[in-house]
Amino acid sequence: MTNKSKPIIKHLDFSEEKLNEVKKIRTSKFSPQRKKERVRRLIGVGPCCICGSLPNLVVTSEVGDKEQSMIRNEFFCQTCYETEQNRAKEGSLYYDCIKSEFTPE
Predict the structure, then answer these.
(1) Whether 104 contacts 97, CB under 8 Å
(2) Three-class SS state of 26
(3) R_g of the chain, CA atoms, integer Å
(4) How confident is the model at residue 19 (pLDDT cuts 50, 70, 90)?
(5) DSSP state letters, 59-81
(6) Full-model pTM
(7) Rounded CA gap, 56 and 27, in Å?
(8) What does the alpha-carbon distance between residue 2 and residue 39 come to, in Å, rounded to a whole number?
(9) Order of strands across the sheet with 8-11?
(10) Angle at which helices 32-43 and 16-26 pack, to 10 degrees?
(11) Residues 73-90: pLDDT tens digits?
């Protein structure tokens, strides 16, 4: 993976058994922090990085430069991922030009 490559998006699928366990944990009497830790341990990934719900996508991208790079994994639910994609489209150079009433040549 190079710095200019596109992020890799993988779908996460959880078994019905794991989803039932997550539901039991969330309705338990544990503290919110303890619930989050137990769910993370059970499913093996963190929560959605925006809303904290169960993720179904992992986006892997390389960050940094040639001398020092690292791989970043971000977990998203489908709704938050689509919202972020729409924000990215709106934040494009073309959109910024329209907002500032600048017309490129």
Answers:
(1) yes
(2) helix
(3) 18
(4) very high
(5) EEEEEE-SSSEEEEEEEE-HHHH
(6) 0.70
(7) 21
(8) 33
(9) 8-11, 57-64, 69-76
(10) 170
(11) 999 999 998 888 888 777
Those residues with Cβ within 8 angstroms of residue 40's Cβ, 6 or more apart along the chain or in another chain = 46, 47
16 phi/psi in degrees, rounded to 5: -60, -35
Whether 22 and 37 have beta carbons less than 8 Å apart is answered as: no
Amino acid found at 59: V
The answer to whether 73 and 57 are in contact (CB under 8 A) is: no
User: Where are the alpha helices (H) located in 12-66, listed in sequence order?
Assistant: 16-26, 32-43
- The DSSP bridge partners found for residue 61 are 72
Q: Exposed, middle or buried by CB within 10 Å (0-12, 13-18, 19+), for 12?
A: middle
Angstrom distance (rounded) from CA 77 to CA 50: 9
Do strands 57-64 and 8-11 pair parallel, antiparallel, or not at all (unpaired)?
antiparallel
